[in-house]
Write a structure and sequence with these properties.
Strand content: 5-15%
Low-confidence stretches: none
Helix content: 40-55%
Number of helices: 4
Strand order of the largest sheet: 1-2
Number of strands: 2
Distance between the termini: 20 Å
């Protein structure tokens, strides 16, 4: 049910694709992903993001964004970031009822 979430950005947090926060006073240490929510959905999004980055030859805005990010961050961290972006994109498509178009991929997520 897509109306369960007010904003598409909260979908990634629901499936545990956002960093767990450790905050105490002045210290704010982002940790590993929270791993909340359904493990199978998270694993599927991760596998899709990994395939998008490592296996596909076709270019897209998400892939080029991920490859730029991979220069400074590690591969696994980038795959999680792309998986988060895919979750947001898929939720937005589900709400709008729109179809996937290659040239419209990207933007802020």
């Amino acid at each position: 049910m897509p109306t369960r979430f007010k904003r598409s950005r909260t979908v990634a947090a629901h499936f545990g694709l956002t960093p767990r926060r450790f905050q105490s006073g002045e210290h704010d240490n982002p940790g590993r992903i929270s791993k909340a929510g359904d493990r199978n959905v998270r694993a599927t999004l991760y596998a899709a993001a990994n395939a998008l980055l490592m296996r596909t030859m076709a270019g897209s805005q998400i892939k080029s964004w991920g490859m730029r990010l991979m220069r400074t961050k590690g591969r696994r961290r980038v795959v999680v970031a792309v998986a988060r972006k895919l979750a947001v994109l898929l939720h937005r498509m589900w709400i709008d009822g729109s179809e996937f178009r290659q040239e419209q991929v990207g933007g802020r997520a």
